[in-house]
Design brief:
The chain is mainly alpha-helical and 354 residues long. The chain is 72% helix and 0% strand. The protein contains 17 helices and no strands. Helix 6 crosses helix 16.
Length: 354
Amino acid sequence: MAARAVVALTFLAAHALVNAGMASSDVAVHHLHQGLLGWDAERYTGIAERGYAGLPLVELRFFPLLPMLARALGAIVGSTGLALILIANVAALGFGALVHALCLHERGDERLARRATWFAAFTPAAFVLVWGYSEAVWGCLAVGTVLALRRRWWWAAAALALLGGLARPVGALLVLPALVEAGRGLAAARGRELAARVAAVAAPLAGTGAFLAWVGAKFGDPLLPFRIQQDPKFRGELADPVSSLLAIVGTTFRDGLGVGSARLVWAGLLVGLVVGACRAWPASYGALATAALLVALSTDHLGSFERYGFAAFPVVLHLAAIARTTTAQRVVVGLGAGAMAVYGTLALLGRYVP
């Protein structure tokens, strides 16, 4: 509820700026009119309503799970857009609950679990957990997969990871924690348990592979979703993470305060949290967090960096583990809510790509 109150404030702020003539461009009015169904949510709505074949090829960069769910629920509630918002917000609640359950499983610390749940709701780009984006669904599937892996519920992990592979282009990264967890005690596994472990590892690749195979059969190139993302209009060409970090530093010194300088802060914070997660949490957490950060940094434009970077839930868990005091918790939530409000307002005005 608190996170949604912050998102409501972004609408008030955006409207105030437009009414005051400080952001009166047609772009700002267009994005503000779209509201929770702007940017990527508009694409998911279009895919749900018309399918990929009825849209430009560039929409293939959006994976099919969320549009499929929105299409099914939309037939019940009478609106695909409403269905998309409902799915995202219910999934966000589930994401928070699963983060809480995962912390309790790993540390048995109720206070840590509560902190982690609050922190997950207040990252810089967490307003997309309220919008019609796939982040909330992906968060449920990623956290659920790791929780199932840690509990040795192999078939449950396989089912969740399969859906994760269909949810987002980064879904295949779930193979890394699956490899780590399934590899423990593998030599002694036999029969059904061995099959279940193999299924858990193969599932995220199977989910992603199923969509890519369909794209190949339908459009002639199974790698189109990734090739399209490399277009300069989107995430751009692949780049090594070190060069991307140096580019952030260069942008900060050239342009001064702004999105670029804030991005340098987030990048530094994420690098530190990933290192900490690798040292303080199970190896499967570190593997997932490291891979997610590398993906976020491995592009020319660093588009939607905040959304990609903080989507790696182990960094949130580690932040909760080190911010133990009440003062630290208030600072983290306050800064997160403030950043979330600023980025959300800029997104509604078309000045920030979430």
